[in-house]
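Exercise 7b. Backbone tokens:
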């Protein structure tokens, strides 16, 4: 069974709320009208009581009181629906209009015995008619009977008929109002949720070729601006990630295709005619070099994949960075001698981390700097430690200035500043990406700057790996490959 839509839910809630409000309002109106009729009838009944009081207040004798019923009948001529009953305080009936019927269960009323208070009224039915009456103690001018109890009642059929018609009209109006408010609520909810439907439409249209679509923020209500902004930011990240993934896949295919094509071509040429053992040996050496390049590329990719998924094993120890740099200088001594590049190191620092990983990161930066330093240039490593024990490593080299727009992407996989540049050093262009993953695994940051023919790579490392890094096992060792810009 499908779940109700948000529009339907809002409509039902709006209709339910309006129903409760209208029903309560209708009930209060009906009660107010009924109380109004009661007050009107009370005033009219008290007016009839005053008529009886006036007659009983005339001076008279006992003989005059005996003729009181006749005089009362004469006074009440024209009051067809008025019922009067007069009794003494003991309850003995003194006078009653014809066909009068007062319910014993409602009379006498307690409040009617007090002259200071406004008497209550009672409502009952008799002979198919609705009656409303009250009872009041009245003083007389007769010495033998100074006080009597006067009960008056009158028909309220006309009030009942009006109230029934009024109540019927009121509740029909309330029902129609509920229906109208439900319809208006549906329209309001539908229009209010239109931006959400637009967001859903954009989301449904998103594909690999339509990641550039964005939600407009100008016409959105303020409640949805944050959601739309987050959605647009997500699309921007997806578009950037997909572009990087596409470029990465293309570069990876090229990196794997080139050595494989070389091996296949060399093998086909070698098999095209009989050759000497020495010629076959040279073909095998050449193929081995291509296979070694392919193996290093695959090893680098496996390392980065493990780094992305947190599958790197932690091995932390105290590392003297100055000593590691000197050992790397010895390793690159022959290379820099051929290129007439000078190496130097200044400062000192140490940190707690994986020695082989840190060595690999430094090696990648050094080989990268040497490769892009012109003959006679200078590569300098600057080490610095602050009071908290955090270490800063700067690798500075002379060479071509890298445009500022390329600096943020130097650590992307297979990224190169000049796409047309041939890779003449045999690397796969993953060195800086691996360096960044090593620095990140140690809880540090890496950045690059280039100006006036000087390029500087700076690594900032804490004094020790964070607990989160250690818990996630963010350290490992992988084979080194010459880095690339």
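Sequence design result:
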């Amino acid at each position: 069974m499908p779940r109700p839509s948000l529009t339907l839910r809002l409509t039902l809630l709006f209709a339910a709320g309006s129903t409760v409000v209208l029903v309560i309002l209708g009930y209060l109106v009906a009660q107010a009208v009924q109380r109004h009729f009661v007050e009107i009838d009370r005033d009219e009944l008290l007016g009839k009581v005053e008529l009886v009081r006036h007659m009983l207040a005339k001076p008279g004798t006992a003989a005059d009181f005996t003729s009181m019923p006749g005089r009362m009948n004469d006074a009440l001529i024209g009051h067809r629906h008025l019922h009067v009953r007069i009794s003494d305080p003991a309850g003995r009936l003194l006078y009653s209009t014809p066909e009068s019927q007062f319910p014993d269960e409602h009379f006498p009323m307690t409040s009617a015995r007090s002259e200071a208070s406004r008497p209550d009224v009672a409502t009952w039915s008799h002979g198919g008619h609705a009656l409303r009456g009250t009872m009041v103690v009245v003083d007389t001018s007769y010495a033998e009977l100074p006080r009597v109890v006067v009960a008056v009642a009158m028909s309220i059929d006309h009030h009942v008929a009006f109230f029934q018609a009024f109540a019927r009209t009121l509740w029909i109006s309330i029902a129609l109002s509920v229906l109208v408010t439900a319809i208006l609520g549906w329209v309001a909810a539908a229009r209010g949720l239109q931006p959400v439907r637009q967001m859903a439409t954009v989301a449904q249209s998103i594909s690999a070729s339509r990641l550039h679509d964005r939600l407009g923020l100008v016409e959105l209500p303020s409640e949805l601006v944050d959601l739309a902004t987050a959605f647009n930011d997500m699309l921007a990240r997806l578009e950037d990630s997909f572009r990087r993934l596409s470029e990465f896949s293309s570069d990876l295919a090229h990196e794997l295709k080139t050595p494989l094509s070389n091996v296949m071509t060399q093998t086909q040429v070698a098999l095209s005619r009989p050759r000497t053992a020495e010629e076959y040996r040279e073909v095998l050496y050449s193929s081995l070099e291509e296979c070694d390049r392919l193996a290093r590329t695959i090893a680098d990719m496996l390392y980065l994949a493990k780094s992305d998924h947190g599958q790197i094993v932690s091995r932390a120890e105290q590392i003297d960075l100055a000593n590691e740099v000197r050992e790397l200088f010895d390793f690159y001594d022959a290379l820099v001698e051929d290129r007439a590049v000078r190496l130097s190191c200044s400062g000192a620092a140490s940190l707690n981390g994986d020695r082989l990983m840190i060595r690999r990161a430094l090696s990648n930066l050094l080989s990268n700097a040497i490769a892009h330093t012109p003959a006679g240039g200078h590569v300098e490593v600057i080490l610095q430690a602050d009071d908290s024990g955090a270490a800063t490593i700067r690798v500075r080299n002379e060479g071509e200035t890298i445009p500022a727009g390329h600096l943020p992407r130097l650590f992307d996989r297979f990224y190169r500043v000049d796409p047309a540049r041939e890779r003449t050093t045999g690397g796969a262009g993953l060195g800086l990406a691996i360096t960044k993953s090593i620095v990140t695994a140690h809880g540090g940051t890496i950045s690059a700057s280039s100006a006036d023919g000087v390029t500087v790579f700076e690594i900032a490392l804490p004094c020790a790996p964070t607990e989160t890094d250690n818990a996630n096992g963010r350290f490992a060792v992988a084979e080194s490959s010459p880095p690339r810009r």
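Instructor comment: The mean pLDDT is 79. The first strand starts at residue 82 and ends at 87.
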